[in-house]
Write a structure and sequence with these properties.
Elements lengths: L1 H10 L7 H45 L2 E2 L10 E2 L1 H14 L3 E7 L2 E11 L10 E11 L11
Antiparallel strand pairs: 1-2, 3-4, 4-5
């Protein structure tokens, strides 16, 4: 049996020393990239979810800013564009984000951007990820003469 090991050792090429070290370096680098994509990809998904939530709620807050009376027999309420923009921007600011508000008739559209710092991808120069969401809300008026559903 020792003769087999001696023969195998003699057959080994002298220039293959250190090849496993190169393999380990490449594998560790690939592992760090995969971990970065998982962890920082999760951060992006959280940012996207949060920006969508804030945009939806800010649009609803803006659409709830109505002018006119809500008493039966009075004209139907309309979205007050100035109040709607103010309310939506207040909601965005309270959430600690940046965004824009557009009011067109009874439709309030909000665009919000959330930014998150990266953990692993900073190694390759990507220090943050950002996600932008655009959501709308519309004031729905029910005709007082229509039957309730």
């Amino acid at each position: 049996m020792t003769a087999v090991f001696k023969r195998l050792r003699a057959m080994r090429r002298p220039d293959d020393a250190g090849q496993s070290t190169t393999l380990y370096v490449v594998l560790v680098a690939a592992l760090i990239v995969v971990a970065g994509l998982v962890v920082d990809g999760g951060a992006y998904m959280q940012a996207k979810d949060r920006s969508t939530h804030v945009a939806q709620e800010a649009a609803r807050a803006g659409a709830n800013a109505v002018s006119g009376s809500t008493v039966l027999g009075a004209p139907l309420p309309q979205v007050n564009a100035v109040q709607a923009e103010t309310k939506a921007q207040e909601y965005i600011s309270a959430a600690g984000m940046e965004g824009s508000v557009r009011v067109e008739g009874d439709l309030v559209t909000v665009e919000v951007t959330d930014k998150r710092r990266t953990t692993f991808l900073g190694i390759v120069g990507i220090s943050s990820v950002s996600a932008t969401s655009q959501e709308s809300a519309r004031l729905v008026n029910r005709d007082p003469a229509a039957p309730a559903s």
